């Protein structure tokens, strides 16, 4: 009986399943980003280097059009970028939101962490900071993003993320004014699964040091100035080398209200298996927004990992990438949504 109890206790502390360090795990089938992060670790780089290299690769390759320049134009046709990086050893964070003119958003986020006492810089001021740090100013607009914006204008600015406004946004592009009577609404009705492919990366080295980060160009046709979950600590990602890391992707305006990445890490700290921690974080949101689109990846300091997603219209399975010492190459993984 004593041996059985001991085995059960050890299982709670070191759950069975995938366990191997170092480890890189990232949202979506962004294989080249996984390669970049994994190669950084293999070359002796830090977990911060791995996260930065992985996110930067996606920014350069414009992963799914939802990361980096030339995608997700807002209501004025401009592409802006959000990014965040977190050091799980020191709990330092650097983040940028609404970044203009600078393609390497994750690099600017790391500069915020390493060259200021601040956590988050936004908008034009973030861009000026980046230029002062030596980042090159470039146009983030492309023919593709111009075409997306042009087609949206031809469609009477639909879909958009306005609500309770006048004139009717289904017939006009504005200007918008508040309606006299405001109806209650839980979410923007036009959010879709093709507008939220944020890259979130968690990296762990052989000693269990953890870092996490995100990069995105936000939501297509967003209201200018909108900031989603990606650059918000505990929402888009979270890392603590005493517990693990997590990163989220999906309907950021909803997900950021629940700090799912922070919650998942705290659940792992309390002994939860990463898969269970991910599922609990999604369930917390699901109780309030049953059809929201979103997913989360989790990894603890022993190298166990997992993921979870909410079943939403057109979204029944979530794909993510993993590379560790067992595979030594990026492997595509998937999880069924619930």
Count of discrete structural domains = 1
Strand proportion, as a percent range, falls in 15-25%
Q: Which spans have pLDDT < 50 for at least 5 consecutive residues?
A: 1-18, 185-190
Assembly status: single chain
Helix content: 25-40%
What would CATH call the homologous superfamily?
Answer: (Glycosyl)asparaginase
CATH C-level category: Alpha Beta
Tell me the number of strands. 14
Could you characterize the architecture of this molecule?
There is one protein chain. This protein has 338 residues and is an alpha+beta fold. It has one domain (17-141, 190-336): Glutamine Phosphoribosylpyrophosphate, subunit 1, domain 1. It is 29% helix and 22% strand. The protein is built from nine helices and 14 strands. The strands form three sheets. It has an eight-stranded mixed beta sheet with strand order 4-3-2-8-7-1-13-14. Strands 9-10-11-12 form a four-stranded antiparallel beta sheet, with helices on one face. A hairpin with a 6-residue loop joins β13 and β14 (331-336). α3 runs antiparallel to α4 and α8 packs across α9 (274-286). The longest helix is centred in the first third of the chain and has 15 residues, at 47-61. It is globular. Mean pLDDT is 91; it is low at 1-18 and 185-190. Substrate binds at residues 226-229, 249-252. Keywords: Autocatalytic cleavage, Hydrolase, Protease, Signal.
């Amino acid at each position: 009986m004593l041996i059985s109890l001991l085995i059960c206790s050890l299982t709670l502390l070191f759950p069975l399943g995938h366990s191997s360090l170092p480890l890189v795990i990232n949202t979506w089938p962004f294989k080249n980003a996984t390669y970049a992060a994994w190669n950084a670790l293999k070359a002796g780089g830090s977990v911060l280097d791995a996260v930065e290299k992985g996110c930067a690769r996606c920014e350069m390759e414009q992963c799914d059009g939802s990361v980096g320049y030339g995608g997700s134009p807002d209501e004025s046709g401009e592409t802006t970028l959000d990014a965040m990086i977190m050091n799980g050893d020191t709990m330092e964070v650097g983040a940028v939101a609404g970044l203009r003119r600078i393609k390497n958003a994750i690099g600017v986020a790391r500069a915020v962490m390493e060259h200021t006492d601040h956590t988050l810089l936004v908008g034009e001021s973030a861009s000026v900071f980046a230029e002062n740090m030596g980042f090159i100013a470039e146009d983030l607009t492309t023919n593709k993003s111009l075409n997306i914006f042009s087609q949206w204008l031809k469609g009477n600015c639909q879909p958009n993320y306005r609500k309770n406004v006048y004139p009717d946004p289904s017939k006009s592009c504005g200007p918008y004014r508040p309606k006299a009577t405001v109806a209650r609404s839980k979410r923007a009705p036009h959010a879709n699964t093709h507008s939220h492919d944020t890259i979130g990366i968690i990296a762990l080295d052989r000693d269990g040091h953890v870092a996490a980060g995100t990069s995105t160009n936000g939501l297509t046709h967003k209201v200018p100035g909108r900031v989603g979950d990606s650059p918000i600590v505990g929402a888009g990602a979270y890392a603590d080398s005493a517990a693990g890391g997590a990163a989220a992707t999906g309907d950021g305006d909803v997900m950021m209200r629940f700090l799912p990445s922070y919650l998942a890490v705290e659940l792992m700290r309390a002994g939860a298996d990463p898969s269970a921690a991910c599922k609990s974080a999604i369930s917390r949101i699901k109780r309030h927004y049953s059809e929201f689109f979103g997913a989360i990846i989790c990894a603890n300091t022993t190298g166990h990992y997992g993921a979870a997603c909410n079943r939403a219209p057109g979204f029944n399975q979530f794909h993510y990438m993993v590379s560790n010492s067992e595979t030594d190459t990026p492997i595509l993984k998937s999880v069924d949504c619930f």
